[in-house]
Amino acid sequence: MENVVGAGKHPNPFNPGSPVDPSDFVGRMQELENFRQRLRQTVTGSLASMAIAGGYGVGKTSFLHKCTTIVEDLDALPIYFSLNEIDHLTRETLARMLMQRVKEKVQEEAILQRISGEVARALARIRITTGGIEVRLGEAEEEFPNLQSALRGAWNAIKKSKSAIVFLIDEAHVLERNRAELLLFLRAVLEQLQLERIPIMIIPAGKFTVSGPSGTGFSPLVRTFPQVTLENFTKEESMAFIIKKLQQAGVAISEGVVDKAHATSEGHPYVLTAYLWSAYTKMKDDEKEITLQHLSATDIEFATSILARFFSRFYDQVGRQSKAILTIMAKNAGGESSLSELVEILKKPNNELSPHLAKLVQDGAIARIDRGRYKLFHHLLGEYVKEKNK
Ligand SMILES: Nc1ncnc2c1ncn2[C@@H]1O[C@H](COP(=O)(O)OP(=O)(O)OP(=O)(O)O)[C@@H](O)[C@H]1O
Ligand SMILES: [Mg+2]
């Protein structure tokens, strides 16, 4: 068929590989409201940060990007960056990174152009030595000994045009290494800033584990960074997601499509996006409606092929014992198993299997649903694992 502009299909509106554009963001109303309230509190000098937790592909980056627009709406300065692939983060390099990002952001912000030269010059003098944190901002006589005073200096430079500084730190799980040492450091910095009511907010997002529910020994952290966990979409969120995307493409939705897509994906944002992306590719050029047939055509290869890259981290990259555990769970109804069943089938003692289970939970492949009972995090992971064992 001839490829005429205006004819044929609208480009696939589903993009499983990238965070959603804030204008296409759906749901998470409570979580966003929570964020908005804490930001308002921060602006009035009562500092309130939070942490965003959630597994692979649940929408952490999308959430931070959405928060960025809220920050801008409230005339605050959003500073987004990722700690992806940074292993050797120390207090010094973290402090330097935060100040470096303030500097870059100030330079790119049009509204700050007038003062940006001055601020940039001041920020350029930040120096951190290895013997401890030595952050300099300004001339020698204005030397600031630590991160909080460097942040205070940055705040003083921009406070006429901004209501707060908000750091949105993606892939921040590295901050909880060594018993959350770096999170505790940031908490101490925020406490100092609170004394002077300097409105700075820090939002780390990642696959957090230890700062989890109170009573895990990190309650002071939970107070400074109360954790909001992003869960799978509800049915309503899945529906809003599908409608919004397909409307853009001028594609109608047949009865039953939303139900089936939500059930198959369990509302997992990445899985749902990938599922619809794939179903969309099954539509012919002249079709203007997505139907159950397109979804069924996708089902054949979805878990084993389309999601292979996503699932391989949970199975292909783990050890033999963990693979054996996942295989048993995949074969069971509901993807569930218990420690006692695993002990029996694998003929290994409790204390040998427990560390593997703990690691699988930590990596997000399985969830602990009850004492000694576990479940695959997604039923399609079961399909994938079964296929691997064929
Ligand atoms: N609230 C939302 N509205 C619409 N789409 C969303 C939303 N949240 C996530 N998505 C979609 O789900 C997919 C995964 O989202 P995202 O990349 O933000 O997740 P993540 O938790 O940061 O993943 P990772 O663990 O890989 O970093 C993307 O395709 C994104 O477009
Ligand atoms: Mg992400």
Written account of the structure:
- There is one protein chain.
- With 390 residues, this protein is α/β, with parallel strands linked by helices.
- It has helices spanning 29-43, 60-73, 91-108, 113-124, 147-158, 177-195, 219-224, 235-248, 257-265, 269-281, 292-306, 308-312, 320-331, 339-346, 350-362, 379-388; strands at 51-53, 77-82, 165-170, 200-206, 227-229, 252-253, 289-290, 336-338, 366-370, 373-376.
- The protein has 16 helices and ten strands.
- The strands form three sheets. Strands 2-3-4-1-5 form a five-stranded parallel β-sheet, sandwiched between helices. The protein has a three-stranded antiparallel β-sheet with strand order 8-10-9. A two-stranded parallel sheet has the order 6-7.
- The longest helix has 19 residues, at 177-195.
- Residues 1-5, 128-132, 137-142 and 211-215 have low confidence and may be disordered.
- The structure holds adenosine-5'-triphosphate and magnesium ion.
- Adenosine-5'-triphosphate (ATP) binds at residues 15-16, 19-20, 24-28, 54, 56-62, 241, 269-270, 273.
CATH architecture of the largest domain: 3-Layer(aba) Sandwich
Q: What is the makeup of the main sheet? A: 5 strands, parallel
What is the typical, i.e. mean, pLDDT? 88
Provide the spatial order of strands within the biggest beta sheet: 2-3-4-1-5
Helix and strand pattern:
HEHEHHHEHEHEHEHHEHHHEHHEEH
Q: State the helical fraction.
A: 40-55%
What descriptive keywords fit this protein?
disordered N terminus; 3-stranded antiparallel sheet; 2 domains; 5-stranded parallel sheet; Arc Repressor Mutant, subunit A; alpha/beta; binds adenosine-5'-triphosphate; 390 residues
